[in-house]
Amino acid sequence: MKPVKNIFIPVIALLLAAVLLFSACSKGGTDSPSQTEAPGSSSSSAPETETENTEEPSTSKYSMNDNLVALTFDDGPGYSSTLKILDALEQNNSVATFFVVGYNLDEHPEVTKKAFDIGCEIGNHTNDHKYLTKCSAEQRDYQINENNRKIKEITGADCKLLRAPGGLDKGLSGAVDMPFIAWDIDTNDWKLKDAAHKGRSDEQRNADIDGVVNHVMSNLHRGDIILMHDIYDFSADVAVRLIPEIVAAGYKLVTVSEMFEAYGTEVKAGSTYRSAQIEVSENHATVKPGAYIVNTSSGGLNLRDSSGTGSNIIAEIPKGTVVMVTESVEGWAKVTHEGKTGWVSTAYLRPAD
Questions:
Q1: Cβ neighbours of residue 335 under 8 Å, at least 6 residues apart?
Q2: Which one is the CATH code of 285-351: 2.30.30.40, 1.10.3720.10, 2.60.120.10, 3.90.550.10?
Q3: How confident is the model at residue 144 (pLDDT cuts 50, 70, 90)?
Q4: What pLDDT, in 10s, does the model give residues 275-284?
Q5: What is the pTM (predicted TM-score) of this model?
Q6: Where are the domains of the chain?
């Protein structure tokens, strides 16, 4: 019988050969370019290090290059009127911001839920439509907080924006922990509601609707916030005509928050915003006499025959124009442009120095 040790010699040799062969194949597999590697690409054997991307991805669907405007509705939800507006928004791939009142929210929570579900934003217009400047601190907190609670209960989301009834927010910048959203285009739709014009003919009603639509379209610029109300049938009929007109003119109707995010508008609690990129805080409500530059987000600034958004427009002052302010009242400045003297909003003026 042959010694047992002789049996292991060929076995050991075979194992060594297998190890060497496996090592060679492994090196060829990791160091050689794969068959799918693009011609001319590097085949360096140096290990690649993965760089972590620490940049926060943008969640905005829009950008500074988009022509965005925000249509806003106060005092709702209504029922049939608000649903009609929602249908028009959906048909035109658009959304809006609805500043709801608590007592109407109690009546029609399902309407607000539908608005939220189709992508609209729900803002706070107080619980009982009380003027916040006339409320005590306790009453003011209740008006805001109670409605915020209701909005979250219905939508599941925190309310981020507040619109003071009547736009009256003077003196509240340090007392309210939410940004105030005002407007720079007032449709005055409530003045033309059917209840105030009993006996109006269908022809006159259509003419009134056209008048509101034409007013908005002739003053519309990117970044604008448009004020309407969704509790009137007249306003709903205006919206049905206005929404496709705005879209056809090349604008996108988005929520206030979407527009602010796209345009980089930094929103601060207690400050008032009339449009995107324009902040109006209390210390800018009046201005001293002197030279100012028209500082609109685009287009021009309306020169009116008297102070107030309901006054007549007599001219448009182009963006970047230097004007001389001769006097100022709350939120308005008197200037002269090309021989015409009138009033402009101080929200769109910055010192020329």
A1: 292, 303, 317, 323, 324, 325, 326, 341, 342, 343, 344
A2: 2.30.30.40
A3: very high
A4: 986 545 544 4
A5: 0.68
A6: 68-272, 285-351
